[in-house]
Amino acid sequence: MSSPRVRFAPSPTGYLHVGGARTALFNWLFARKTGGTFVLRIEDTDRERSTDAHTRVILEGLEWLGVTWDEGPYFQGAYGDRHRADAERLLAEGRAYRCFCTREELDAQRAAAEARKEGFRYDGRCRRRSEENVAAELAKGTPFTIRLVMPDEELAWDDAVHGRISFQGRDLDDFVILRSDGTPIYNHAVVSDDVFMRITHVIRGDDHISNTPKQIALYRALGHPEPVFAHVPMILGTDGKKLSKRHGATAVGDYRDQGIFPAAMRNFLALLGWSPGGDREILPEADLIEAFSLEGIQSKPAVFDTTKLEWMNGQYLSATPASELLPAVERQLERLGVGSSGRDLLPLIDAVKVRSRTITQLAEQVAVRLEGPKERDAKAATLVAKMGDGYSMNLRRAVTALEPIPAAAWTADALLDAIKASAEADGVKLGDAMQPIRVALTGSTVSEPVNELLAIVGREPALRRLREAAGQ
RNA sequence: GGCCCCAUCGUCUAUCGGUCAGGACGCGACCCUUUCAAGGUCGAGAGACGGGUUCGAUUCCCGUUGGGGCUACCA
């Protein structure tokens, strides 16, 4: 077999959903693994809902993820002539027919079927029209759609992830392939394009399984061999329902904005519904490609767990040197309206790196060290409440102990000694002396070691904040 | 309603008939640290149910239950 050709074919009717991103990723991984070609096709046949803005967002999302395409983007809307020609060929060969039923008639039939608790299936009445009758309708200029003659035969395939899936043609109806305005319906456009673009492997979402028999019927009618189909399971929200807006962030852009790394997102998405086998979790791009296979794809849906995504991002964050993080941190600081006032940010980044899971969190922590906390987090607030007067008392002690240290001697080591000596003299546990300082300086119970924190914040700002927090 | 897909810890998963059912996230404990994390160690935690097939089923088959998808002149 010549090298595989795969495609990702989103419709620009919304943002790039994480499910779509994963489908794109699997296609990409497969193409890279097999030395195949990854084609991007924008399915914009739904003129009502498709927008250029959505197309742009999808392209940007893919680029951000590092899912690069080798061909395209092709726009399905540009191929109307071929779609029409294919439909007319089917018509000429008797594999399709004109349907003059109006929307109203169809709606009435559907309503009646539903009232009887039955599924609606078009009864094919227009297929039985005589040639004279068709000619007469045509002469009158009655609008018509073109429907495919659904063969009464088995429509089955060996799905690369599900194994054999089989439908019966008699359970399906003669579906519309060309609208009365001459534009194609999804299934028809897809098959026409996949044939034209010589797609060998169709890797797409599970929700397309029920479209597949229709498309197989189309391939057979058109006289083209079918590609390999691989239907990847869907992504669910934590409640087990299809992932949607109400589960929170679903667009890849949301995660980019939250400070998730493309590499972490890629790694996480790849492991959602696919496993390289064994116990590996953190896989760089090259390993992902090396290990990828369609057979490794799970057949059950997967729940999108943002906690694990963040953990994974933290792994990538910890492994990235501060110097590489710097530009992103500077951008985030700018967004927060925080100036670095000429300070070298590298030590600050290193100080908070292992305690952050996203660039955004990291930048916020850097900002706090630069300008002080805006508020206390829940744990810190609880701690302050629990300590009562002890909180400000310990802060006053800290100020007394730290004030004598001149700026020139304001080092982590000296600070540690001073705090220890003070705590010991007052009979205060070191933790009780430290934690109020940490909270006063960061608004959080989590930070680098307190003496290092003090050194990083600097003598004047640190003492000022401690006094303020102590109510002095 | 019809057609189709799915079913291992809370979550992501390993297992391709014989395992103390392994790993990761999260959770708990401990170690490290006279302070926070990170890290390390340990722990709790799963084969939906019922039938088969088999010397032996999480694994193969059937059914039940429970999820999900599709059922448009949407994609």
Strand content of the residues, in percent? Answer: 5-15%
Report the C-alpha radius of gyration, rounded. 31 Å
Instruction: Report the sheet with the most strands, covering strand number, pairing sense and barrel closure.
Output: 3 strands, parallel
Helices, by number, come to: 20
Strand order of the largest sheet: 1-2-3
Q: Kindly report how far apart the N and C termini lie.
A: 79 Å
Structural class: mainly alpha
The poorly predicted ranges are none
Query: What's the overall average pLDDT, rounded?
Result: 90
Helicity range: 40-55%
In one word, what is the shape? Answer: elongated
In terms of quaternary structure, the protein is single chain
Give a count of the beta strands, DSSP E runs of length 2 or more.
12
Task: Write structural notes for this entry.
The longest helix has 17 residues, at 18-34. By secondary structure, this protein is mostly helical. The N and C termini lie far apart (79 Å). It has helices at residues 18-34, 52-65, 80-92, 103-115, 131-140, 186-196, 212-222, 252-257, 262-270, 285-291, 306-319, 322-336, 346-353, 359-371, 378-387, 389-402, 412-426, 430-442, 450-457, 459-470, and strands at residues 5-8, 37-42, 71-75, 96-99, 145-148, 154-159, 163-168, 176-178, 201-205, 228-232, 235-236, 302-303. Helix 17 packs across helix 19 (450-457). The mean pLDDT is 90. Helix 1 links the parallel strand 1 and strand 2. The chain has 20 helices and twelve strands. Strands 1-2-3 form a three-stranded parallel sheet. Strands 4-5-8 form a three-stranded antiparallel sheet. The chain has a two-stranded antiparallel ribbon with strand order 6-7. It binds one RNA strand of 75 nucleotides through helix 4, strand 7, helix 6, strand 12 and helix 11.
